[in-house]
C-alpha cells in the first residue's frame, strides 16, 4: 500500500484486519519496513499493522527539502490521522524509537502506548559508529562522493562487513544469514546516501535528554545488552527520566534483539501489548482491544489488580474472557469441574450451598462476591470440582474469566506479573477466610470489606447469623469508615 501525505508518497507493508486498532511500525536509520518484519505476524493478530518505509528509504519518496526528525514526526502524525480516528500503538526501532518518543511528546492524543527497541535518545551514537561509519556517511551528502562510495562498495564489502557486524550484532547473535543479508542490502540500497547523511545529522540534532519526563504514554523499551550502535548509556537516561516506562535489557542481543533473540523479545512485546499467549498451544483468539482497555482500567480497582502497573493490568485483561449473566442465572453448578478464576466486573455473584438430595429448597445462601472481588481461587489452583453453586445476583453480573492454563502461561511469560498475581490471589483468599471466621451464628456481625467506590476504600457489611452459616448480607451501611 502507499499513501500520499503532504505531497510525499509513502509506502507501507500492511497486515491484519483493517477495522482493528492501528499499530504503526517505524524502522530506524538505513533500514526499511523489513526491519520490524519479525513482529508483524504476532502484532497483526489483534492490530492493523502498518509498517512504513520512512520518506527517502525503501520504496518511499524523499521529503521535499532537508530531512529532520520533526518533519518525519509531523508527517507520521498526519498518516495516523488519515488511517484512524482512534489512538494508535507505536512500535519503533532505533531512529524509529526516537521518532516514536517524539510523537508521544508532541501528539500524545494520537498514541495509546508504544514499544521502543534500542531507541536513539541522545543522538550521540557509539564510538564505533562515530569512528568507522560516520565519516563515510558524511561523504554521502555530496552527490559525487556518494557515487564514488557506491561504486567502490562492492569491492569493499568484506571490509565493511567486518566493521558493521560488531556495531550491530552481539557476539552470540542468533540472527539468520538470510535476515542479515536482507538488512545489509537495505543499509546499502543505492541512491539513499543523501538521506542517510541527513538522518544521521537529524538524530545528532534531536537530543531527547531532559524531555522524557514529559511523556505520559505508557511504553515498553527493550535494549540489547551488547548494543554497539545506540549505547546503553541512553538506557540510563530512560531509566532516570521516563516515568511510565517498562525498561528491559536483553542478553545475547545487540542492536537488533527482535532478530537476534526473537523468542524472548517477542514474549516481552506480546505480554506488553496483551497479545495471545505465545508459550502455549492455546487458541489464538483475542479479546477486542476496546474491551481489554476497559477491563485493564477496571482491574486497577480490583483485588487481583492491586499494585499492578497499567502494562501488567493490560496483559492480564487481554487473557480474560468477558461473560455476562442475567439475574439469577446459574454461573457454575456444584461438583462441576472447573479451572476458571472469576473476577466480578459489575453486579454480584451469590454463592449457594449444594442441595441436599437434589432438593433446591435445602440450599442456603452462603455469601456474595461483589464488583472488584474474585472467586474460584481453589478451582484455579487444583482444577478440581466446585464446592458450591454460583448464581448471578439480583441485577445480573458481568465477569472477567481467566483459565488456569492462560494464567500459568501468562506468568511464565512475565514472572514479575506472576508474582503479583499469586500475592493478590493469596491476599484475597486470606481475607475471605478471615471474614468467614468472624461471622457467627449468634449475633449480627459487622465485617469490613474492600469498597471500590467509596473514598475510604472500606465498607462495613452486616451479616445475619443463622443455621449452618451466614445468610445474605444486608445492604452496605451508608457511612463507610476505616
Indicate the topology.
Blueprint: E1 2-5, E2 8-15, E3 22-26, H1 40-43, E4 48-52, H2 69-83, E5 88-93, H3 95-106, E6 111-117, H4 127-139, H5 143-152, H6 157-168, H7 177-187, H8 193-204, E7 219-224, H9 233-241, E8 245-250, H10 257-260, H11 262-273, H12 289-299, H13 310-318, E9 321-325, E10 330-332, E11 340-352, E12 365-370, E13 374-375, H14 377-382, E14 389-403, H15 404-413, H16 415-438, E15 445-450, E16 458-463
Parallel strand pairs: 3-4, 3-5, 5-6, 6-7, 7-8
Antiparallel strand pairs: 1-2, 2-4, 9-14, 10-14, 11-12, 11-13, 11-14, 15-16
The overall strand count is 16
* Morphology: elongated
Proportion of beta-strand residues: 15-25%
The overall pLDDT average reads 82
Could you say how many structural domains there are in total?
3
Structural class: alpha/beta
Rg? 27 Å
User: What's the arrangement of strands in the largest beta sheet?
Assistant: 1-2-4-3-5-6-7-8
What is the name of the CATH class of the largest domain? Alpha Beta
For the largest beta-sheet, the strand count, sense and barrel status come to: 8 strands, mixed
Subunit arrangement of the protein: single chain
CATH architecture of the largest domain: 3-Layer(aba) Sandwich
- Cα(first) to Cα(last) distance is 60 Å
Amino acid at each position: 500500500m502507499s499513501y500520499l501525505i503532504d505531497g510525499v508518497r509513502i509506502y507501507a507493508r500492511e497486515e491484519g484486519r483493517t477495522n482493528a486498532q492501528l499499530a504503526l511500525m517505524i524502522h530506524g536509520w538505513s533500514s526499511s519496513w523489513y526491519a520490524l518484519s519479525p513482529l508483524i505476524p504476532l502484532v497483526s493478530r489483534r492490530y492493523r499493522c502498518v509498517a512504513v518505509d520512512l520518506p527517502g528509504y525503501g520504496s518511499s519518496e524523499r521529503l521535499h527539502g532537508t530531512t529532520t526528525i520533526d518533519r518525519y514526526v509531523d508527517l507520521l502524525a498526519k498518516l495516523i490521522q488519515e488511517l484512524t480516528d482512534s489512538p494508535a500503538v507505536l512500535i519503533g526501532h532505533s531512529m524509529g524509537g526516537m521518532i516514536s518518543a517524539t510523537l508521544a511528546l508532541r501528539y500524545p492524543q494520537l498514541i495509546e502506548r508504544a514499544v521502543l527497541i534500542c531507541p536513539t535518545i541522545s543522538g550521540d551514537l557509539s564510538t564505533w559508529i562515530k569512528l568507522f561509519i560516520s565519516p563515510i556517511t558524511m561523504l554521502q551528502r555530496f552527490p559525487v562522493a556518494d557515487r564514488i562510495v557506491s561504486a567502490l562498495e562492492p569491492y569493499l564489502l568484506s571490509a565493511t562487513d567486518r566493521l558493521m557486524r560488531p556495531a550491530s550484532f552481539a557476539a552470540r547473535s542468533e540472527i539468520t544469514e538470510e535476515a542479515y543479508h536482507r538488512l545489509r542490502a537495505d543499509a546499502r540500497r543505492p541512491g539513499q546516501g543523501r538521506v542517510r547523511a541527513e538522518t544521521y545529522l537529524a538524530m545528532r540534532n534531536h537530543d531527547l535528554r531532559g524531555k522524557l519526563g514529559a511523556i505520559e504514554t505508557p511504553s515498553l523499551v527493550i535494549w540489547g545488552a551488547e548494543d554497539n550502535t545506540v549505547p546503553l548509556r541512553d538506557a540510563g537516561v530512560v531509566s532516570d527520566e521516563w516515568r511510565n516506562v517498562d525498561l528491559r535489557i536483553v542478553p545475547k542481543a545487540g542492536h537488533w534483539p527482535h532478530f537476534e533473540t526473537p523468542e524472548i523479545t517477542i514474549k516481552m512485546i506480546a505480554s506488553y501489548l496483551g497479545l495471545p499467549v505465545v508459550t502455549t498451544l492455546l487458541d489464538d483468539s483475542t479479546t477486542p482491544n476496546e474491551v481489554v482497555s476497559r477491563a485493564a482500567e477496571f482491574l486497577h480497582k480490583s483485588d487481583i489488580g492491586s499494585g499492578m502497573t497499567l502494562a501488567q493490568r493490560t496483559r492480564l485483561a487481554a487473557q480474560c474472557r468477558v461473560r455476562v449473566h442475567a439475574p439469577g442465572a446459574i454461573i457454575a453448578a456444584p461438583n462441576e469441574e472447573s479451572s476458571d478464576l472469576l473476577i466480578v466486573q459489575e453486579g454480584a455473584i451469590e454463592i449457594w450451598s449444594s442441595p441436599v438430595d437434589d432438593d433446591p429448597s435445602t440450599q442456603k445462601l452462603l455469601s456474595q462476591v461483589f464488583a472488584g472481588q474474585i472467586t474460584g481461587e481453589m478451582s484455579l489452583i487444583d482444577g478440581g470440582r466446585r464446592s458450591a453453586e454460583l448464581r448471578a445476583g439480583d441485577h445480573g453480573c458481568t465477569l472477567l474469566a481467566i483459565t488456569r492454563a492462560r494464567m500459568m502461561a501468562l506468568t511464565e511469560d512475565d514472572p514479575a506479573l506472576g508474582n503479583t498475581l499469586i500475592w493478590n490471589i493469596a491476599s484475597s483468599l486470606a481475607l475471605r477466610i478471615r471474614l468467614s471466621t468472624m461471622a457467627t451464628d449468634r449475633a449480627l456481625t459487622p465485617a469490613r470489606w474492600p469498597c471500590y467506590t467509596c473514598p475510604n476504600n472500606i465498607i462495613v457489611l452486616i451479616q445475619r447469623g443463622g443455621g449452618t452459616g451466614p445468610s445474605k448480607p444486608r445492604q452496605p451501611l451508608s457511612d463507610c469508615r476505616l
